[in-house]
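Deviations from the work plan: none for this task. Representative record:
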Amino acid sequence: MNKTILQIVVICFVAALLAVGNNLVSPNKVPWIGNWPSLSDNSDSVWVSPSYDAKSDPPTLRLSEAFDRFVSKTYLFVDAREPEEYQAGHIKNAINLPFDTFDDHWAQVEPLLPKDAKIVTYCSGTECDASLLLARLLIQKYGYESIEIFFGGWPAWNKHKLPIDGKYDE
Amino acid sequence: MANTMNKFLTNKYLVFLIRLAIGIVFIYAAVSKITHPDQFARIIYNYHILPGGVINLFALLLPWIEILCGFLLIIGFWHKSATVILGGVTVVFILALSVALFRGVNIECGCFSTTSKAKGPVIDLIVRDTIMLVGCALIFAANKTFLALDGLRRRF
């Protein structure tokens, strides 16, 4: 058994030497420590709409928190962007409820959103506040209670290549 | 009956074929990862399991472990140790695929190619890796040295 462990160590050591050697001479070499964006690196998800009021508006989510909610499968993601943007690509299983044309879509969407659903709204990141306006509308006019806003929205989700329906933006 | 089954599974020719097959599979799988470590690293990143700092390290090291162990398995040198490593690697693959399946994350498997866009159902990949794991367990348990350098070492 000790012999096996020793052999395993030697094999791993030789593999490491080969890897180092190859990465020194390979035309496709990569740095040993990569600079991959981390989900918990919040630099790109701290932006909130200027009209956001932390006292009265629903809580906001950072990307890592939004992903945790997505994984839990107990939250409904609501995409507040226009149908064309939604159809091109959206967070997997998200429901489209465009804020700008809310009245045209509400009748269709209402049955999909139970009043006690836990909802996360999002739109096009730093360029939009439809997610905030939609959240306010759902709370104030329609009596929803559990809504959170993911301001990072589609751009942050797309950048990290998290689960979607449709296509990623390049 | 159990004895017959046992005899069949530890038949030296069968064990040799499994050794050969698993060795070839891992070498084949490693080649495109070695030539395109950047793409392989991107695939690992998409699993969202490893911390960003160790992704490249993993992408650079793993294929060399696969290729070296695959080679050792084929020539039958230190084949039990190589089997243990490949079994461990396969367990890591199964865990990673299971996490991806549970989370519903879009992944390219990154199993054999870093460029293929083909995405099989994740559950199929888990089944395939499980079969590989059973193969590794069989090689380890059978301890046969037919057409293996380990056999020569034992003899001389």
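The first strand of chain A starts at residue 75 and ends at 79.
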